[in-house]
């Protein structure tokens, strides 16, 4: 373990359940779903609430939701528009993941190219669609002068961004990192592509781990956390919402989209996250699963949890946020880490909404109804949050609150 | 493409509308206003240029753009080229 501990001093989210981390958590806990007509649209988000007309016009939706989520997180940690930043901005990094980047801008400009020729393509297309546009816009908006980039590991990206941010702080490259993930891919191009690979649920229902699951539902939005070196947070009396204890990442090196059915890569990532955190399976109180609602993921993830956690796996509540917000791709890991932190703080296991039918060989406790966490050790609760992506990327976070 | 002389007022109205689309209030877009004061940068100006080219067949090139300081400069250039 590193001597520089990493705590969380701000969280913010835009999800299909609402604009705000707390409202998203409260609605999930109440078993409400943000999914409608086979998609999870962040309907309550209005870019003009957060951006000037000019800025809204120059940013793709994936950057816009990032700015909204970051505003919530940064205000919580003490950034105000008209005041000096609470820490030296040269020591503040900004790592925002995305699965795809500005695909809505890409699609629109491809259509302009077809309909109007090369001169019809917007000069703003590249700065809007590039995957690092969210990180760049955010750093510019708040004057964050430390290391900044995007992380692209598909649906593991949100968790990878947080893990990368932890390492920047532990290594001493930054004292604070604004980290998270964003996705806004609810357009005909991404929908058709995922449909044609049979990844999207034909029934239009996200029911992770249920025997009847038939694919994921795409969601959109962003999750942003402010990670800070523990002594920096203590020195300025910042409210600490939780701690990032460990990060484990691995590759399946198996297939470009299908997870390794043995769950070997995911198992190694889970074990590594626990080892990095200095924790054992017995220390865990909750598992926030990747749980996409696809046949393959949910089975191999169950396998990985059983292999990595042994007997402890069947005693733990394991739930999937994707049952209510769908799959937010590159934002998923960040939003799920945020909601996991709140759940730990509240000592609650939020539900896998809609889970009813047990699938053969999948015998974990998938939490069909929300319930309090049991027998929490000491004065804090500990969880892992899993993120797995196309490309065979596995990223697991170990958190405490 | 304009066969006859294009009216300066009409060009101004068209360009001012295009600039207002980018962000500034329409009433602030006056001929003497600088592009900088309206927060119109080179990327925005390309977008305005696309409207101009579609409407008047005038292409704003790199060396032209560097010389443009005010809204009136843009209007003058278009009127000159389109006539």
Question: Topology of this protein?
Answer:
The complex is a heterodimer of chains A (401) and B (83).
Chain A: E1 6-15, E2 18-19, H1 21-29, H2 53-57, H3 61-77, E3 92-97, H4 103-116, H5 125-129, H6 133-142, E4 148-149, H7 157-171, E5 176-183, H8 188-196, E6 221-229, H9 230-235, E7 242-251, H10 264-277, E8 286-288, H11 295-309, E9 318-319, H12 322-325, H13 332-346, E10 348-349, E11 371-372, E12 382-389, E13 393-400
Parallel strand pairs in A: 3-4, 3-5, 8-9, 8-12
Antiparallel strand pairs in A: 1-2, 1-6, 1-7, 5-6, 7-13, 10-11, 12-13
Helix pairs in contact in A: 1-13, 3-6, 7-13, 10-11
Chain B: H1 8-22, H2 42-56, H3 62-67, H4 71-82
Largest sheet of chain B: none
Which topology of chain B does CATH recognise?
A: Non-ribosomal Peptide Synthetase Peptidyl Carrier Protein, Chain A
Largest sheet of chain A: 11 strands, mixed
Write down the CATH class of the largest domain in chain A.
Alpha Beta
Look at the structure and give the mean pLDDT of chain B.
Answer: 90
Structural class of chain B: mainly alpha
Fraction of residues of chain B in helices?
Answer: 55-70%
Can you tell me the CATH architecture of the largest domain in chain A? Answer: 3-Layer(aba) Sandwich
Query: Under the CATH scheme, which architecture of chain B would be assigned?
Result: Orthogonal Bundle
**Overall structural domain count of chain B:** 1
Please compute the radius of gyration of chain B using only Cα atoms.
12 Å
Give the helix tally of chain B: 4
| Cα end-to-end separation of chain B | 10 Å
Shape of chain A: globular
- Distance from first to last alpha carbon of chain A: 18 Å
Q: What's the assembly state of these chains?
A: heterodimer
Shape of chain B: globular
Q: Percent range for helical residues of chain A? A: 25-40%
Instruction: Determine the most extensive contact between two protein chains.
Output: A-B, 12 and 11 residues
Give me the CATH superfamily of the largest domain in chain A.
Thiolase/Chalcone synthase
Low-confidence stretches of chain A: none
């Amino acid at each position: 373990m590193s001597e520089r501990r990493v705590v969380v001093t701000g969280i913010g989210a835009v999800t299909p359940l609402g604009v705000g981390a707390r409202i998203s958590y409260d609605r999930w806990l109440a078993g409400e779903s943000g999914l409608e007509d086979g998609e999870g649209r962040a309907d309550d988000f209005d870019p003009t609430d957060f951006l000037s007309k000019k800025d809204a016009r120059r940013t793709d939706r994936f950057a816009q939701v990032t700015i909204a989520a970051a505003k919530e997180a940064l205000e919580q940690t003490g950034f105000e528009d008209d005041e000096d930043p609470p820490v030296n901005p040269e020591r503040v990094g900004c790592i925002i993941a995305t699965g795809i980047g500005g695909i809505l801008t890409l699609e629109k400009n491809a259509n302009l190219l077809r309909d109007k020729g090369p001169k019809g393509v917007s000069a703003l297309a590249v700065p809007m669609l590039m995957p690092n546009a969210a990180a760049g816009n955010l750093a510019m908006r708040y004057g964050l002068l430390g290391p900044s980039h995007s992380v692209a590991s598909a649906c593991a990206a949100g968790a990878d961004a947080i893990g990368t941010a932890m390492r920047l702080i532990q290594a001493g490259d930054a004292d604070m990192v604004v980290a998270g993930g964003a996705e806004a891919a609810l357009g005909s191009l991404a929908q058709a592509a995922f449909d044609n690979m049979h990844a999207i649920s034909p029934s239009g229902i996200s029911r992770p781990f249920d025997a009847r699951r038939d694919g994921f539902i795409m969601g959109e939005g962003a999750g942003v956390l402010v990670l800070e070196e523990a002594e920096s947070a203590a020195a300025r009396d910042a409210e600490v919402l939780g701690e990032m204890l460990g990060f484990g990442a691995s590759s399946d090196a198996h297939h470009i989209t299908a997870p390794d059915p043995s769950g070997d890569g995911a198992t190694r990532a889970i074990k590594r996250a626990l080892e990095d955190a200095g924790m054992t399976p017995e220390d865990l109180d909750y598992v926030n699963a990747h749980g996409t609602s696809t046949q393959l993921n949910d089975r191999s993830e169950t396998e990985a949890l059983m292999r990595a956690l042994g007997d402890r796996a069947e005693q733990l509540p394991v739930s999937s946020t994707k049952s209510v917000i769908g799959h937010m791709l590159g934002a998923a890991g960040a939003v799920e880490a945020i909601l996991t932190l709140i759940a730990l703080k509240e000592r609650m296991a939020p539900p896998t909404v809609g889970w009813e039918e047990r699938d053969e060989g999948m015998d974990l406790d998938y939490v069909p109804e929300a319930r309090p966490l049991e027998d929490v050790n000491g004065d804090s609760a500990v969880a892992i949050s899993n993120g797995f992506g196309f490309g065979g990327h596995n990223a697991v976070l170990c958190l405490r609150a | 493409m304009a066969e006859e002389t294009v009216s300066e007022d009409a060009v101004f109205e068209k360009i001012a509308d295009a600039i207002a689309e980018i962000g500034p209030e329409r009433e602030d877009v006056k001929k003497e206003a600088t592009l900088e004061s309206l927060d119109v940068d080179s990327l925005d100006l390309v977008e305005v240029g696309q409207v101009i080219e579609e409407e008047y067949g005038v292409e704003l090139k790199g060396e032209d753009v560097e010389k443009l300081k005010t809204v009136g400069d843009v209007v003058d250039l278009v009127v000159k080229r389109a006539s």
